[in-house]
Amino acid sequence: SEHPFITAAGLVIKNNYKMWQLFILPLLIQIGVSETDVPVKSFTINMDLPADVRLKPLCDEYKEYVVDIYQGMVNQLPEDALDSLEDIMLRWFLKNAIEPYKSEIYYVAQCARVPLGAVVTMNLLYDMTAACTSIVAEDENGLIWHGRNLDYGDIPVLRNSTYVAYYTNNKSETLYVGTPFFGYAGLWTGFKKDAFSISGDERDQGSIIDNIESIHDDYWPSGWLMREV
Fold first, then answer.
1. Alpha helices (H) in the chain, listed in sequence order
2. Residue 130 vs residues 19, 21, 133, 149: alpha-carbon distances, Å
3. Closest by CA position to 145, among listed 39, 11, 32
4. How far apart are CA 91 and CA 14, in angstroms?
5. What pLDDT, on the 0 to 100 scale, is given for residue 37?
6. Which residues contact 160 (CB under 8 A, 6 or more apart)?
7. How many CB atoms sit inside 10 A of residue 149's CB?
8. Mean pLDDT per 10-residue section of the chain, whose length is 229 residues
9. Smallest Cα–Cα separation from 103: which of 51, 169, 48, 47?
10. 12: which strand partners?
11. SS3 for 122?
12. CA dist., res. 217 & res. 160, Å (int)
């Protein structure tokens, strides 16, 4: 087996193992522990279909959680600065967002019946406030395990809205796999078959407010970048 190495985007493992073996740990970690643990559901997302078609099953399943996720995130911001900070993020999105993220975020806002700015805030604020940690280990059988915790404060609905996404095309080919939560267009844990696995971690640099106020045209959400990889 080849040893894992570090990149700017996160932890990557080159491997010749079956991908489902690498993906066991992210699922176990992201489910968490509660009184009513349930298996994470899986969805196939055909990227050749419009956003309002490919994401509809997800919206039907998880739309009720969007408002609570948003509220849990913005609770970290000063109430008197919330409007101005959200305005910065929304202006960035309207000017710079590209497909497939733009249409997916518009659709989430529409299907969950929440303001567009709320969904944009969920996507950009997560990039600046998450506190996740990844783990890479090799067991006694030579199997490589790659996992990431979902360390994001007291927002229980993140667990309830986490799912496994199989991104495919019209040829039924699996392009990549990830474990996002509904409403977030990027990925923080994922892999490509016979290629690599990837995850994103926290790096403290500046305050939340400073990071939001410094958003510029060249900024790109890390979770979106990982989905591009």
1. 19-31, 51-54, 56-62, 66-74, 82-96, 101-112, 116-129, 157-160, 208-213, 222-228
2. 26, 26, 10, 11
3. 11
4. 38
5. 62
6. 62, 65
7. 18
8. 31 35 39 56 97 98 93 84 90 95 98 95 80 87 86 74 95 95 93 90 73 82 90
9. 51
10. 5, 198
11. helix
12. 33
List the structure tokens of 12: 């990557």
The token duo for 37 is 């643990």
The secondary structure of the chain in percent helix, strand, coil, rounded to multiples of 5, reads 40, 20, 40
CA-CA distance, 43 to 126, in Å (whole number)? Answer: 22
- Cis ω before 156 (30° cut-off from 0): no
Q: Is 132 a catalytic residue?
A: yes
For 29, the token pair is 């970690």
Q: Which of 51, 105, 114, 132 is catalytic?
A: 132
Hey, is 94 helix, strand or coil?
helix
- Three-state SS sequence of 197-209: EEECCCCCCCCHH
Give the whole-angstrom CA distance, residue 186 versus residue 183.
Answer: 9
Question: 135 in helix, strand or coil?
Answer: strand
Cβ pair 169, 47 in contact under 8 A: yes
The residues, ordered by sequence, that sit 6+ positions from 33 with a Cβ below 8 Å of its Cβ are: none
The residue among 161, 123, 148 whose CA lies nearest residue 201 is 148
Query: CA angle, corner 50, sides to 45 and 55, nearest 5?
Result: 40
How many residues are listed for the chain in this entry?
A: 229
pTM above 0.90, yes or no: no
